């Protein structure tokens, strides 16, 4: 939500999708399950009726369903791929139709350091996040002539409710692998996304930008 708030603070019209939880006060909330193409189409129709054509898409819907490879079943693998990778494809495809008419646009996919380095017990999640790189770079080649960019932000460990509940020993183990010695803030991830959506990044496309404190260097 920090990303949406950052754009709102900059004076942009912002809409966020949700699956029933609603949106924070002041933001347009649109119900949408990204695994359902019809819901994606309806959500964009609703957003465009309220705010006009979409100029910036941030695709960050994602789920996890961890498990070791030999214990992971097809449904477990497919469910994560469908939400994280195919879901991003669905929203990008619909957003691109609007951007083509405008002859400009910014698409930013939120990946993960795990998508670049892998993670034990996360074959499905890592594959889905790695796939976003190929998706973004293909879009960059297809739509670049229309001034539409597609990039990937790959966060590492970020201070959230999920990391707050980690055991102290696990936190120390993780921090010991991060050159900067701390977790990222959500504002640091949001700032990178905002930069990619700005005029300053107009000549940046097909890039993967890590926001991981150096955790994934070399990947």
From TrEMBL:
Keyword annotations from UniProtKB, A to Z: Oxidoreductase
InterPro entries reported in the protein's UniProt record: NAD(P)-bd_dom_sf, Sc_DH/Rdtase_CS, SDR_fam
Recorded GO MF terms: 3-oxoacyl-[acyl-carrier-protein] reductase (NADPH) activity
Enzyme Commission number(s): 1.1.1.100
SUPFAM superfamilies, alphabetized: NAD(P)-binding Rossmann-fold domains
Sequence similarity: Belongs to the short-chain dehydrogenases/reductases (SDR) family.
Name assigned to this protein: 3-oxoacyl-[acyl-carrier-protein] reductase
Species in which this protein is naturally found: Saccharopolyspora erythraea (strain ATCC 11635 / DSM 40517 / JCM 4748 / NBRC 13426 / NCIMB 8594 / NRRL 2338)
